[in-house]
Amino acid sequence: MDFASIAEVDAAVAAAKAAFPGWRATSLSRRTEVMFRVRNIVEAHRRELAAFLTAEHGKVPSDALGEIARGIENLEFATGIPNLIKGGFSEQVSTGIDVYQIRQPLGVVAGITPFNFPAMVPMWMFANAIACGNTFILKPSEKDPSASLYLAELLKEAGVPDGVFNVIQGDKVAVDRILDHPDIAAVSFVGSTPIARYIYETGTRNGKRVQALGGAKNHMIVLPDADIDMAADAAVSAGYGSSGERCMAIATVVAVGAVADPLVEAIAKRLPKVRVGPGTALVTKQHRDKVASYLDSAPAQGATVVADGREHPLYRGSEGFFLGTSLIDHVTPAMDCYRDEIFGPVLTVTRVATYAEALQLVNDNPYGNGTAIFTRDGGAARQYQFDVNVGMVGINVPVPVPVAFYSFGGWKASLFGDLHMYGPEGIQFYTRAKIVTARWPDPGTSKVDLGFPRTR
Length: 456
Ligand code: NAD
Prior knowledge:
With 456 residues, this protein is an alpha/beta fold. It has 17 helices and 18 strands. The strands form four sheets. Strands 10-11-12-9-8-14-15 form a seven-stranded mixed β-sheet, sandwiched between helices. Strands 5-4-3-6-7-17 form a six-stranded mixed β-sheet, with helices on both faces. It has a three-stranded antiparallel β-sheet with strand order 1-2-18.
């Protein structure tokens, strides 16, 4: 695949810029109609779309379809655009004067997306962006580029006019051109933290509005009163689902007090039942080898490897980049396996004595994407939701990805910018407010006889 040159990025931006005046002037009811058709066409072709995800990302069909279903939620949300984009109106703020707010699209906006959700993350962005009247440039990950091209075909079929949704395939060259192109008003980014920081700093320096979602290290706190089987099931599905290549995956379990031994045992007992095979390969060999390297560095730094995924027969095979489920216990905050975002099927366990220690661990961590607490104590869970410096919190729910009518975003190094992605904050991100203060001519100059005295 050839990567886009600067001239090709410029051509895409020019097409988006040319389409903007017509699209922003298209009525809300017409845009709603188009969004309904987009939703229905994507839903009707979800299996074909899923096939691209399975072929290029490698996720199993059920995961691919799950990702698409979560993406479609955002298309559904965007069909509510007439209501979502409503402004406010204040009548008679002063004699004869009304004030109102209208929300207008920004112009050409761009989305830069990661490899791990090649269909859903673009839908997080473009659904609201185009429903608001913007035109959109998508730069997907070069590791799985085809889903975005197929989405472009579907959008065209749904009646999205030419130039409203554009895809460019590229790497840093294309990204850097997006960041300095004067005709791009805003950039949404999802990916790793170092790149997110770079996108935010460069984009904002160039005067663009930027939301840049970064990496994660999601902690699951298990209090001593938790249902151990429920917590172990959750740790396994959230830690190893999609081979841990999810920004909302549970990376580390924090076991409080006496729950540690039975919990580690319960997790370990479940590992042989986690399927490793077609659909669970990691994205590249280089990434798989980096993930596996923590199984050496962790014991060297004092941790205990309870399950070593390199023992899985597929690890040594030549077909695909597999690693079996791995579990590392007695992990401390100084160890590499705790500090780094591993992004693979490796779950670590840190043992602490008290809730306060567990909380401090989470709040000291530089990331703040998601977290979960497992307990039967409603008061403790409520206290945690109050105390924790993390953007998305699950209570006995290990992967608390918000539904599309809330917004998605972490805190700290998991998000650069002010507005979270999709949902109501997505609408805010892709529009700007204009406040109109209006006075109509003095009634004395009006020729219309209302038949009764005017009130102002
Ligand atoms: P990545 O940061 O390597 O790539 C993301 C995008 O940035 C891609 O489109 C890529 O082409 C581009 N890019 C990569 N290097 C670049 C550079 N030097 N300059 C400019 N652009 C560059 O991320 P990835 O490996 O594709 O995805 C995995 C990461 O994404 C993990 O860290 C994961 O936590 C994170 N992620 C976060 C969320 C979230 O919602 N916070 C969601 C999904 C993934």
